[in-house]
Design a protein that fits this description.
Layout lengths: L12 H23 L3 E10 L5 E10 L13 H7 L2 H21 L8 E5 L2 H4 L4 H11 L7 E6 H5 L2 H13 L3 E7 L6 H4 L6 E4 L1 H5 L11 H10 L3 E4 L5 H9 L4 E2 L8 E2 L3 H7 L4
Helix pairs in contact: 3-5
This protein binds ligand C2E and calcium ion (3 copies).
Protein name: histidine kinase
Length: about 280
């Protein structure tokens, strides 16, 4: 700790110093991870709740250092957002996800209606060359815009409202599908959401997990399904973990979902087997 006057030490400094060192190490680690291509993409199937057919995959990043255990996004994404490194990480994820999808398509495992969903942070949304990057990555991999879904949170849209509005519209004009992630956890007004060119709402896992066997206490889920229907949007329920969740969601006519009940996120190598087993091909 640094002296602050006559032999006095500010009590909080050692802790702050330790935190600063940790953050610096993490930033260095993330930069190296980018250079060494240590970010790997896992995929979680999105299924049709009636047929259990896999209709798409969500790309979820993990950090794999050689010989270490996997690091999950909650432990580095917030910091990557703070430092801006998320832009490059997100770019690698998008590249990898598109390259993988192109391969599965070439192998005849999926058709052109199959989509890959990629999470986009607000930092990425603010990149002036975002549209160009997406365009060239899709082109390099021989994919069309329709095959990509971008998942955005309410806050990443609302925080940059004026700018993002134009970006979203352009994406939509190119037929990229936009989903609102963690729907219901933000504070956006419905009248604003209504104006956005979004085609899908993802019901946050917290609402799905509070579903009970009692049809009178389904919480906010029926409300979200009503909103989506009124706005003519698709719905994907996240975090489906039990048969009871599935049953209730089916009762409510929720069409799509994802969760541990169906599939955990898996590395790319494991995807072809899943697709074959699910009867996609
Ligand atoms: P998310 O986009 O809401 O992703 C869903 C999270 O729920 C994933 O956690 C997934 O593994 C987990 N999950 C799926 N099914 C279930 C279930 O049935 N039960 C439970 N308890 N969890 C389930 P994960 O992979 O750890 O990702 C956490 C968050 O990190 C994501 O939340 C997303 O916000 C962020 N993230 C992941 N990959 C990326 C990325 O490439 N870019 C950006 N910007 N953010 C990412
Ligand atoms: Ca997501
Ligand atoms: Ca989510
Ligand atoms: Ca989330």
């Amino acid at each position: 700790a640094k002296a602050s006057g006559k032999g006095q030490y500010r009590w909080f400094e050692p802790a702050m110093h330790k935190r600063a060192v940790q953050l610096l190490q993490l930033e260095t680690g993330l930069r190296q991870a980018l250079d060494r291509r240590e970010f790997v993409v896992y995929y979680q199937p999105i299924v049709d709740l009636q047929t259990r057919n896999i209709i798409g995959l969500e790309a979820l990043v993990r950090w794999q250092q050689p010989g270490q255990s996997l690091i999950y996004p909650d432990d580095f994404i917030p910091f990557a957002e703070e430092t801006g490194l998320i832009v490059e990480i997100g770019d690698q994820v998008l590249q990898q996800a598109c390259a993988d999808l192109a391969q599965w398509q070439q192998q005849g495992l999926v058709d052109q209606h199959f989509t890959i969903s990629v999470n986009l942070s607000s930092r990425q949304l603010l990149q002036p060359n975002l549209l160009g990057r997406i365009g060239s990555i899709l082109q390099e991999n021989g994919l069309s815009y329709k095959q990509l879904r971008l998942e955005l949170t309410e806050s990443s849209i609302i925080d940059n409202r004026a700018f993002v509005d134009g970006v979203l519209r352009t994406l939509r004009e190119r037929h990229i599908q936009l989903s609102i992630d963690d729907f219901g956890t933000g504070y956006s007004s419905l009248s604003y959401l209504h104006t956005l060119p979004v085609s899908c709402l993802k019901i946050d896992r917290s609402f799905v997990s509070s579903i009970t066997a009692n049809p009178d206490s389904l919480g906010i889920v029926p409300l979200i399904l009503n909103i989506a229907q009124t706005m003519n949007m698709q719905v994907i329920a996240e975090g489906i973990e039990s048969e009871m969740h599935l049953q209730q969601l089916r009762q409510l006519n929720c069409r799509y979902g994802q969760g541990y009940l169906f599939h955990y996120p898996v590395p790319a190598e494991a995807v072809p087997v899943l697709l074959v087993q699910a009867g996609n091909r």
